């Protein structure tokens, strides 16, 4: 067992799911939950996914071998400073925020005075438009990529930490902070922006937007589901991903190209544009299905 005692700061959707998964797969002896909400701590204890619960950080992370920080991006800086200040010698610190470049640079500064701890930027690519411990699940991370940005430790597939993390049934992927924010900007942050923009396009530009929404089918609901996510959470994410403007510029160029194709009223170029997307998406889906089949065969 790599970590005897794990402390999780923030028992929301991600932190709560991690606590449940650690318990399910027996990945540590003691799980400590930290949350400002005492009711959340009580619920976690009743679910038997934490052994101890605290509202206060210093007491909660004391003697923890692994400290997981699962708080909103906007609160990350303050919590990170407190964790570095109070973590025991030899502790591992893992964050679970969805932006990495800024956080990992802040950690680099803190590591200058705490070279006796390990910091890894982490981002489980799993979630929901729902939030809070009540929606957490021990199965949330299964088959999901778990992105890692190691700061002061070398990681590869043979590393003990990677093998330990795989017990969660995740796919660890190692990258740097800039690469993370750009790629996650495309695959996670841009879809939320688009989903939000679609809803606001209807609500801002139509006479009876609710009547239009009542006409929606499954495709629209799937596309706009994440527009219901917590705006506080996403505002912090957008303001802290310095690569998002680059991603949004690329999307706007695609929209301008599509608008021109529609204006030209020419079947073949428009068809080719749509076909290009279909072929690329189908190839990606085939590779994903092959990966899942191979994983099942290996079990």
Automatic annotation (TrEMBL):
UniProt xrefs under InterPro entries: 6-PGluconate_DH-like_C_sf, NAD(P)-bd_dom_sf, PDH_C, PDH_N, Preph/Arog_dehydrog, Prephen_DH
One annotated GO biological process: tyrosine biosynthetic process
Enzyme kind, highest EC tier: oxidoreductase
Keyword Membrane assigned: no
GO molecular function terms listed in the Swiss-Prot or TrEMBL record: NAD+ binding; prephenate dehydrogenase (NAD+) activity; prephenate dehydrogenase (NADP+) activity
Pfam (any one): PDH_N
Domain Prephenate/arogenate dehydrogenase: 4-292
Documented EC number(s): 1.3.1.12
Protein keywords: Oxidoreductase
Keyword Transmembrane tagged: no
Family the UniProt entry places it in: Belongs to the prephenate/arogenate dehydrogenase family.
Full protein name: Prephenate dehydrogenase protein
Lineage, broadest ranks: Bacteria, Bacillati, Mycoplasmatota, Mollicutes, Haloplasmatales
